[in-house]
Amino acid sequence: MKLLFKPLILAAGLAALGTVAEANSLRFAESQDVASMDPHAARDDFALSLLCNVYEGLVRWNADLELEPALAESWEVISPTEWKFNLRKDVTFHNGNPFTADDVIFSYHRAGDTGSPFAGLLEPIAEVVKVDDHTVIFKIKRKYALLLNDFAGWYIMDKEFQESIGAEKPLDLMSNAGGAMQTQANGTGPFKLMERQPDVKTVLAANPDWWDERKHNLDEIVYTPITNNATRVAALLSGEVDFIRNAPPQDLERIEATPGMKVMRGPHLRTIFYGMDQQSDTLEGSGVEGNPLKSPAVRQAIAMSIDIEGIKRSIMRDNSNPVATQLAPQMPFYDASLDVRFPYDPEAAKALLAEAGYAEGFTLPITCPTGAFINDEQICQATAGMLAKIGITAQLNMVTPVQYDAGLPAGDFDFYMLGWAGLPTIDPYNIFSATVHSPTGDLGAWNPNGYSNPRVDELIILIGEETDLVKRQEMISEVVKTQRDEVGKIMLHQQFLTWGMTDKVNAIVPGDEYTRFWYYTMN
Amino acid sequence: MITLVLRRLGSVLLVMLVVSGMSFLIFNYLGDPVNNILGVNASLNEREELRRTLGLDQPSYVQFWHFLQRAVVGDFGISYRNRLPVLELILSRLPATVELVMCATVLALGVGIPMGVYCALRPKGAFSRLLQMISLVGISIPQFLIGMLLILIFSVELRWLSAFGRGEVVQIGWWSTGLLTDSGRKALIMPVITLAVFQISMIMRLVQGEMQEVMRADFIKFARARGLTDRSVHLRHALRNSLLPVVTVVGMQIGSLIAFAIVCEAVFQWPGVGLLILQAIEYADFPVMAAYLAMVGFGFAMINLTVDMIYLFIDPRMRRG
Lengths: 523, 321
What we know:
- The structure holds 2 protein chains of 2 kinds.
- Chain A is of the alpha+beta class.
- Helices cover 29% and strands 22% of the residues of chain A.
- Chain A has helices at residues 2-21, 45-51, 101-112, 147-151, 159-164, 229-237, 252-257, 296-305, 308-315, 346-355, 376-388, 401-407, 428-435, 454-465, 469-485; strands spanning 25-30, 59-61, 67-69, 72-79, 82-87, 125-132, 135-140, 191-197, 201-206, 220-225, 243-244, 261-276, 320-322, 363-369, 393-399, 415-420, 490-502, 505-506, 521-522.
- Chain A is globular.
- Residues 1-21 of chain A have low confidence and may be disordered.
- By secondary structure, chain B is mainly α.
- Chain B has a domain at 87-285: MetI-like (MetI-like fold), CATH 1.10.3720.10.
- In chain B, strand 1 (170-172) and strand 2 form a beta hairpin.
- In chain B, helix 1 runs antiparallel to helix 13 (286-314), helix 6 packs across helix 8 (182-215) and helix 10 (230-260) runs antiparallel to helix 13 (286-314).
- The N and C termini of chain B lie close together (9 Å).
- The model of chain B has no long low-confidence stretch (mean pLDDT 88).
């Protein structure tokens, strides 16, 4: 008896020791590294989706993508152009410095001054006034509906620390002033930067002095960029990493079939569509007179030729949701009654084309990015096949994402695939102002020569200003309906997020793709 | 000999100028880094503004001129993607690549030459045929596939080796090395094999072909007639005279591997210059690409120079010319 028990007790004791000693380290791999630890250096959702764990704004998005107080405890609208924010008092930065109104004002100037990538985001603000150490008033230039949304993407930095390392301005790409932010960070968030080797490894540790109640149980996050998709999946399968965001679609089955692995899915806010030149008088290379894309009937015919369920089934492997409007169902002010697609009906589409005077069809140049959206190439190829059935000859032009990002706003493409998620604002205004409003210097950057309707343009401006929720809903629905009925875009689907991880990890998969690690736990 | 070196150095400069000049022409077609820096939400006005600040609105030759002006004082600008000075960035990545390529070359020479000698001496033997078949596979199989197969076997299935990265590295001055730690040495295994497979096959075939040629030469017959041992005939006379083309080719290979071990580095997430340039291309990180291509031009020209020098030592006849 004695002989039997001793080793058992010993084993139990060792096991207990083991669990105590083992820290929860979340090893996380992603296709690229963040450009810098500076949250004002690039208005880039990829960087911010990681940096949100280190830095915080006055408000933040919670797990259900609702705004909640963060560094500001509360706020009140004093007048349509004056907002008062009461700052949280018990907050310290990672270096121990207290968080005060001076840091807010400093961060406003750092991010908002001319030349900073965030100047556009903070443009509505005229002035920030300090009332006392924990109260500030934002004076804004005009009535503005999205101040809080914008603030969720604007992170607060420590004035004293930034000045001490010579990074009181975001990195200047010409002079390298502020270059220290490549490897340093001092925020107020739930995790603090411990180690950083650009392109190799970034280590975050839980911040024990975080002001908020700690719900996560992570001690450490080790973030490794792994560029190659296959290697990244191999690293997950071999147990070298615990978590990869955006698992490649072709590997989902493999991951799910591996014991101890899972794929967590969630709807993305991004909807995918085709945009097109509806302004030019001719469509180069079309082989017909004039620009067929100017005619709403032709656009509708193209929309009706696309078998979106087929794309969902055979290309997206059910990881998509066909939509009729640019607002994903998870987007605020989504109106389900408008989300009705043109039916898939090639015969009717052909008839529409004939009515519009294109019975013989025409040639359509389609520009498609390779790797900007999930399965973008395959979807474009499938579209070409479907268009052939109604007599339109598609000419596919595949471009790399970086060529695409340059060419699209420049108006180089006649018919192109595009996806828009409305980030970081998470409001229809963001989608409309970038992709629906007629192009001006400030608006409509992603709608070159595209859909244009003066009434819609007028409504979009009002939607940016209107704070009354009922009125906003009416105007947003009118824009959505008008654009849908006039076939301003040819809508495809909403993408799903597919995140691969080991069973040990409990993640949340929010529609904006941000990794909010303070909601994660590990078993 | 001095004139030879000087003349070569002159052409080095010319090569660098042409290569970096051409890179600026290519940038026009490569895309635009502005979107990556400002994010998708930037307005057209903001984009224009940044383009002006970075000088991207200027014609290629003006951009090239600005680049040259700064480059002569050693300032290659700031990387758009990594937000670090370009020269510092490239130099910090170079050790990883050099170490990888050197290990692969040593392995390739160590395995390839004996295999080549063996096949040259017994061209009809069964083992020679097997080696030749293997080398054919080694030459034709893409690097990407070798790398992925190794990862599948040794990382995913056996879990012996890490699928990515360099392991722990030790910093010696500005040089970083993985050779001094266990995890660093283990991390080298798969990338080195991946890179060496092609080289082994190539060196083997080269040595075999050359040596068979040399073995038929008169001086080998005379050597035998003098009663020298097989060993001496094969290794001191035949092999030594077969190595000239091998040195040339291996020299060029080392150069192109250091410059463009892109596939291997991408597969194993090896933090060297190949991966850096791949990501720079994807990001339209022009300062990195311009500086890198100029440096590659420089490197190749230098390697050519070195190879010429080595000729002089291997083949005394060339010293007179």
